[in-house]
Every structure is written in C-alpha cells, then in structure tokens.
C-alpha cells in the first residue's frame, strides 16, 4: 500500500505543476526508457543478485532483498513462468532526478502459454543515483503523465 501511495503522490505532484504534465527532457526520458528496457532483459535472467545490482534500489521491501526477490522468482518458476516479453515502455520525468516508467509486457510460461492476465501494465517509480537510474517502487499501472490535467472551475454563486 505504501508503494501505491508513493506513486499516487508522484502523479499528484506532476498534476500540481501548473496544471500540466512536467516538462519532458528528452535525455532523462530516454534514460528512463532505456532502464526499463534493461529491466526486462535483466529480469529474464532470473538472477536476483543482478536485478538488485542493476535495477532495484528499494532495500525496505521484500522485493528489494536477495531473499525476497529470490522467493519471488522461485514462486514464478513453480507457477510455470519462463520469461517476459516487452511490448513497450514510456518514461516520464517528475524532477531532473525522479521519474516514472510504464512497462507493458506479457509473462510467458514454459508450456508456451501466458500467465494471466496476458497484457500487463506496471508503473515504476525511479530515482537517479550517482550510479544511474534505479527502480525505487512499483505497482499496477498504467499512468499517463503525458497529458495535461484539466482543473475544474469553482461553482458560481447565485
């Protein structure tokens, strides 16, 4: 639940910025999208230590520990998981060193089928550290920080 609140707060912050989506620096957005593409490649190795070294930076969560992440991989394998196929990513800067990444993907099983739901969308909160962008939290998506947020005008008094 903390993750959902964090992402909701980031989205609300984006909406508050003058009522419009945050300015999108091409470099920062491209870096976020590259990190999300790297994420799926590293994830598909099923190597928890590499996911933690290259992608995640969330030590206060089970998925941010070697034991917790390995348990997740073990459960996925038990359920027949083989690998994920990436359908697309989108990045969004909130500040120069924080952003959101949206990933659309399918989890495929060893028998050739998919793990329901077939089409998944997750949203990831990222922070730029001295060693690069890292995922600091995630949850179900999608998010749209690419459109303006329309403000509702106050009701007129009679």
Write structural notes for this entry.
With 158 residues, the chain is an alpha+beta fold. The protein has one domain (2-15, 24-140): Nuclear Transport Factor 2, Chain: A, CATH 3.10.450. 34% of the residues lie in helices and 29% in strands. The chain contains four helices and four strands. It has helices at residues 2-16, 26-43, 48-54, 66-78; strands at residues 81-95, 98-109, 120-129, 132-140. A four-stranded antiparallel sheet has the order 1-2-3-4. A hairpin with a 2-residue loop joins strand 1 (81-95) and strand 2 (98-109). It is globular and about 40 Å long. The chain starts with a helix and ends in an 18-residue tail after the last strand.
Number of domains: 1
- How many strand elements? 4
What is the share of helical residues? 25-40%
| Fraction in beta strands | 25-35%
Structural class: alpha+beta
CATH class category: Alpha Beta
Stretches where pLDDT is under 50 for at least 5 consecutive residues are 3-23, 147-152
Largest sheet: 4 strands, antiparallel
Shape, per Cα inertia axes? globular
Q: Helical region count?
A: 4
Q: What is the succession of H and E elements?
A: HHHHEEEE
CATH topology label = Nuclear Transport Factor 2, Chain: A
For the termini, the CA-CA separation is: 42 Å
* Second-tier CATH architecture: Roll
The average pLDDT score comes to 83
Could you give the order of strands across the largest sheet?
1-2-3-4
């Amino acid at each position: 639940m903390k993750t959902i609140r964090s992402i909701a707060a980031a989205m609300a912050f984006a909406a508050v910025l003058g009522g419009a989506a945050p300015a999108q620096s091409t470099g920062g957005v491209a870096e976020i999208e590259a990190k999300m593409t790297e994420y799926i490649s590293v994830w598909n190795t099923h190597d928890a230590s590499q996911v933690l070294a290259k992608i995640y930076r969330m030590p206060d969560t089970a998925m941010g520990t070697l034991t917790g992440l390995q348990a997740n991989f073990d459960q996925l394998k038990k359920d027949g998981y083989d690998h994920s196929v990436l359908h697309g990513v989108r990045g969004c800067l909130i500040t120069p060193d924080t952003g959101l990444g949206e990933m659309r993907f399918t989890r495929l099983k060893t028998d050739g089928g998919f793990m329901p739901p077939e089409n998944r969308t997750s949203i990831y909160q990222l922070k730029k550290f001295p060693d690069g962008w890292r995922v600091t939290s995630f949850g179900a998506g999608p998010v749209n920080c690419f459109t303006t947020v329309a403000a509702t005008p106050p009701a007129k008094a009679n």
